[in-house]
Amino acid sequence: MRRDINPILIRELRGRMRTPRAFWLLVGFLTAVAGTALLVYTASYLSSNGQSSGNNTLGNTVFFTLIVTAMAILTIMAPVMAAGSIAGERERQTFDLLLTSQLSAGTIIFGKILATLAYCGLLLSAMTPLIAMTFLMGGVDLGELFIMYAIIAASVMLFTCCGIYWSTRANTPLTAIGFALATVLGFLFGLPLLAVTIPTIWAQFLNDTAVLDAVANIGLAAHPFIAMYFTDTAIHQQQIWTHVVNIKGFSMTLPATWIIGIIESWIISIAFIVAAMRRVWPMRTRS
Amino acid sequence: MIVFDKLRKLYGDFCALDGLDCTIPKGATVGLIGPNGAGKTTSMRLLTTLITPTSGDVWVDGVSVTAQPHLVRRLIGYMPDTFGVYEAMTAAEYLDFYARCYHIPVATRPALINDLLGLVDLQPKRDALVMSLSRGMAQRLSLARALLHDPEVLVLDEPASGLDPRARIELRALLHELHDQGKTILISSHILSDLADLCTHLIILEQGKLVAYDTITALLSAQQSRRIVIQTLTPTPALYALVTHFNYTISVDPQLPTRYIVQMNGDDAAQAQLLKACIEHNIPVQQFASEANTLERTFLQVTAGLK
Prior knowledge:
The complex is a heterodimer. By secondary structure, chain A is mainly alpha-helical. Chain A has eleven helices and two strands. Chain A has a two-stranded antiparallel sheet. In chain A, strand 1 (242-247) and strand 2 (250-255) form a beta hairpin. In chain A, helix 3 (57-92) runs parallel beside helix 7 (142-169). Chain A starts with 6 loop residues before the first helix and ends in a 7-residue tail after the last helix. Chain B has helices at 40-47, 69-75, 91-101, 109-119, 135-146, 165-180, 192-198, 216-222, 237-244, 268-280, 295-303, and strands at 2-11, 14-24, 29-33, 55-60, 63-64, 76-79, 153-157, 184-188, 201-206, 209-215, 226-232, 249-256, 259-264, 285-291. A six-stranded mixed β-sheet of chain B has the order 6-7-8-3-9-10, with helices on both faces. Helix content of chain B is 36%, strand content 29%. In chain B, helix 3 (91-101) crosses helix 4. By secondary structure, chain B is an alpha/beta fold. Chain B has eleven helices and 14 strands. Chain B is elongated, with a radius of gyration of 24 Å. At the A-B interface, helix 1 and helix 4 of A face helix 2 and helix 3 of B.
């Protein structure tokens, strides 16, 4: 017997793609990404007085701008879309019908997550021609593209799962969106703040904060923009897979920041998924 | 088929359901009545595995709602009091989506959806957007959805609320048909005349407690008092004295000088005795009619004095 695709995924995609909102979101996304890249390209070109930089800097700058802009937009879009999903079912009064069907909590949650990820994937795919143009300018290779897309995918996954979690807690989409955005923005601004302030405070008591600095760097790896910056620098230093940390004279080789970041994002995402599933489960078996 | 076993549900200090204990036989159509806050929706949500009981259990065809909720969901078709709408979805797609949710095989799905749309008389609307359907059509579509996996038990929460008279009659006919197919149906409704027509059994709840549970016939006949309308050709003061002193009379309401409503105990023989007395006293009786016991009156009598 042929196994069905997750019905929630199909319904979400069908419902989302049939509304004009999906088209206008795509247009808005591409306009924002292309517009920002064009501004950066123009500024870079004018600052070099129309001369080719010779080291493919322009291509790399435009590529990095495209990626960071896409990440910034998806940082807002992913949790917003996900937060509206389960809370939206509650508001439409369709949630009870799902719970009394044969669908498991996992199928409902994963259907919602995959639907958001699929739409974000569509947005990223739509900017492929823009990315391809940076290859023509030079300074970008496929490995870098793969790594940046992997960072985006892991972060979008994390923010989507955060949105889904809040969606299971709130009764209205607006409340869920508010909490999800507050969590994501708190993470993006709070994490660097903690990474800076804690070692600084710690330094008041201990002279050597090398270990804490290393831990802070590992913690910051989950931050997509910081991971992108570190990765871009590391790639140009030919350190794609690993980086070396020096603690009190000892050298330690760790996986590259982007690998640590992706692993951290996955772990936090799984925690959000488990918490969301526990909220959705209509009735736990009492044996 | 359904056994409510000392079912109790507390929300904090508030007891929404207090020891509901009764057994519904297979194939019965059971009306669940009671004022708002009596525990009707709580009972239904417990039965449909949407909430967990504080104590007690519900058994559906021998399967425990608390121990094996996933199996119970397979046996139950639930139609809530509100019709949740998805944007940009046709009636056929709506059913197809829920058919997937019930893991109905791909091969059988199109025929099943066709059959169900035919059953609820929505074939012409199969490609209409769900949002565009009238309330009555939406309720019928919701019923079709509840029937997708051919459940043994149908749980219908206020299925006729907000429907116009025609839609109510159509829904009632549909439920009669499902009853004839052997489905066990549990309906909550405030429209008691509909329930009187549909149901074989009745559960009366008040403040979370089971007040009465029996067949409709037994509940109606258990209420001994009856109303007799006596109309005379001309004003007859002697009639008032006669009915007031009649052995079985509870109260007399002289509505007009020629019309009296007599509330009385007793059976058909007592009623015949009153008519005989009227004739023997040469009262010019134009009309002597007993009003049948209605569900409304039974409900009021059963729940009288509980507040």
